[in-house]
Amino acid sequence: MSALATPPLQLAPFVNEPYADFSKAEQAPAMRSAWTNVRGEMGKEYDLLIAGERRKSAAKLESVNPSKPSEIVGVHQKGSEKDALDAVNAAYAYFPVWADVPVEQRADYLVKIAAVIRRHKLEFDAWLILEAGKTWAEAEADVSEAIDFCEYYARLALKLAKPETLVQLSGERDEMMYLPLGVGVIIPPWNFPLAIMVGMTTAALVTGNTVVIKPSSETPTIAAKFAEAMLEAGVPPQSFSLLTGSGAAIGDTLVAHPRTRFVSFTGSREVGLHINELAAKTPKEQIWIKRVIAEMGGKDAIIVDRDTNLDQAVTGVLYSAFGYQGQKCSACSRAIVDAAVYDDFLLKLKSKAEALSVGASDQLENYMGPVISARARDTILSYIETGKKEGRLITGGGKADGDGYFIQPTVIADIDSKARIFQEEIFGPVLAVTKARDFDHALELANDSDYGLTGAVFTNDKAKAEKARRRFFVGNLYINRKCTGAMVGAHPFGGFNMSGTDSKAGGPDYLLQFVQAKSIAEKIG
Ligand code: NAD
Predict the structure, then answer these.
(1) Ligand 1 pocket mutation pick from 131, 262, 300, 329 by most atoms within 8 angstroms of CB
(2) Which of 27, 277, 286, 342 is deepest in the core (most CB within 10 A)?
(3) Tally of helices (H runs) and strands (E runs) in the chain
(4) Angle at 259 between CA 256 and CA 263, to 5 degrees
(5) What is the Cα–Cα distance from 208 to 186, expressed in whole angstroms?
(6) Residue 357 · residue 326 · CB < 8 Å
(7) pLDDT tens per residue across span 257-291
(8) Is 295 marked active-site?
(9) Of 138, 140, 218, 295, which one is the catalytic site residue?
(10) Is-above-0.85 flag for pTM?
């Protein structure tokens, strides 16, 4: 990172962005006004942004409101192969300029992006409700996390620019500095359409890389709003491109481009592995090995021990399984319950799951909104049919009322560890419950997975909690709390095995993945 002299940027210690409390009556006018502003822009058309140049395409991409699919949220361009090539080439051309911008200035841009998002927070919430089907509370958590990433990485970049002192050999000055990598392709998923996109993008930018952002085709309007926020914050338009369109159509071009230096991906295992394979190829004109940061799926388990507060465990499982309709990579999709409390657990869980309201996500009384698309709904429903054959349906089991892509919170018990709904990521409100003989058996079942993202244990037994610390093979372990809701700074996030490269987003080491270290030894005296 460049160490050119600029006034030092003074930032107060990082604190997480507070959440608005939507149950308070005084929030209502601000929510109404944000809602009116956003509603007024529904169906608007957005351009491609190639290093500041606005472009249109003949083919369009429309995003819809999953609570009411007849409603179009945004009309977007379908970037072509040429747009993809131009975006990487433009990012490559601007890279040396951006890499030379002092780190204080790049960090300051992140703080400014955070300020713009904060100023428009309720509008961002509304876009997430309308395009991603989040409830107000889930949207607020997503937008707050986006702000946290900007603020956290700004501080981290300043720290990274002052590496620790090395061993000093006699007659030498020995030092190490971190340099940016080059052009990064940023590929986020739709399920944290703001937070993950903002986190991956700002981490790359603040360390001096230029980026091409390829957002999910389910949530392009949220990406367009983020691009507007970056421009409003004064980020040089040449430092990034926003390329909407189908991942399958332009993804390979971006990943395979010889000038792409790294790919930062979050999404499914299938696409992540494809990207990893493609990125490993080295075309003749490419002079580096591409770096791939890939955070992928999960099949996250909560272990409920016999020695626990069962009500707390049931609540923890309920919110982990059905928050945002089970569409979090960290969602609990397997409850592994000690035989001694198994029947009681199911009874309590059934009654709580049946009390959850499902419906349009803008209505505050609904705990669950729609799943993201018709395709997702059909896949989830087909898994539910499989699950009904593999186990005993406790509650749910089909569509919920309404025009949107609504699915009932579904619990299927007596699931064997070889069952498909125990092993495969469903990414919807479907929970498999499995009986364990004892705690060791529960741990064995929890680890019987290709994935290793999050997990939780509910137990009052300190020795068992200690065993889980050592033996529960997940990147993010929670004890006596839900397995979702990772907070920037406190819970560095990333998983093991097929859950990805364990990049630990929002943690102290995250930025190291966007830089390369240079060691310098100078003879002195
Ligand atoms: P997805 O893999 O279908 O899509 C992710 C992104 O990849 C999208 O932007 C998509 O357009 C793009 N894409 C698709 N084909 C591509 C190709 N050939 N080349 C390049 N890009 C391509 O995933 P999704 O449905 O958007 O997201 C859900 C998945 O993401 C789940 O598996 C979930 O567990 C995972 N996820 C993981 C984390 C984590 O931190 N581990 C966080 C959130 C989501």
Answers:
(1) 329
(2) 342
(3) 15, 21
(4) 60
(5) 14
(6) no
(7) 999 999 999 999 999 999 999 999 999 999 999 99
(8) yes
(9) 295
(10) yes
